[in-house]
Specification:
CATH architecture of the largest domain: 3-Layer(aba) Sandwich
CATH superfamily of the largest domain: P-loop containing nucleotide triphosphate hydrolases
Helix content: 40-55%
Structural class: alpha/beta
CATH class of the largest domain: Alpha Beta
Distance between the termini: 14 Å
Amino acid sequence: MRDVFFIVGPTATGKSEITADVAGDIGAEIVSADAFQVYRGLDLLTAKPDAATLAKVPHHLIGTMSILEEMNAEKFRKLALGAISQIHSRGKLAIVVGGSGLYVKALTHGLSVTPAADPDLRAQLNELSLADLQKKLRELDPKTPVDLKNRRRVVRAIEICMLSGKPASGQRTGWSAAETAAASTQGIFVFRERDDLYQRINARIEAMFENSVIEEVRAVGAMSETAAKMIGLREIRDLLGGKTSILQCVVAIQQATRRYAKRQLTWFRRQTNFQPLNLSVLSHVESVKWISQKAHLAFAQGND
């Protein structure tokens, strides 16, 4: 993508703060590729950048969507491309930052054409247990790459199989045509050593509770199916319902977040050609300087 630079990686690495400083250095604006920060409200639960970080440079797709709306990779791609176009129209560079791997891939590779969701079929599938859904998907698509523990993705894969009459995994080949273009996309994959990352995750969750995330969740009413997938939402609602203690709640969210970070690391290592950068061995200033230089170079090459 011309005049677009990517900074991706797992949650709690410090991407938001580093990217804001990099964008300030090179005169860029930021487009968020986060599946949950796009929603208005629940700032603590979704770990939105703080006010000081947001004030450094213009940010896009953070807190712009109603929590009642469904979100997916196709909708994100349209919104992100619109934001990038507006940024370029002002003569600015764009940096995409985030940890939602499928959203990033929607920009770098495009999307394969698959059938739209069918409300009646979706309702039927939602009545089945996860075990029954897993069995059904294995029958329809034995080579499925879908995470079988992710109910939403299992349901969607079954929908694609049943509505198209073909295995969902075979329809992912639409991305293959974009591999060459994606390989030329410029970006950095930031990560940290496991102990460092896990310590940061645990500290972030503790800080969320110190800053009244329980009250934030208590105040939320109806939500879309997509928004309801936020890590920590179910656990805090169980706490509010008296089903668990606050200590158990904190530990459960920390564990769920660590598992999510592990999945993100696996995704970005397998799905991108971005240059890796270990933030555990660099200071914030050093990281910003290094990435700024890479971004400068990438934008210069793109305009040759």
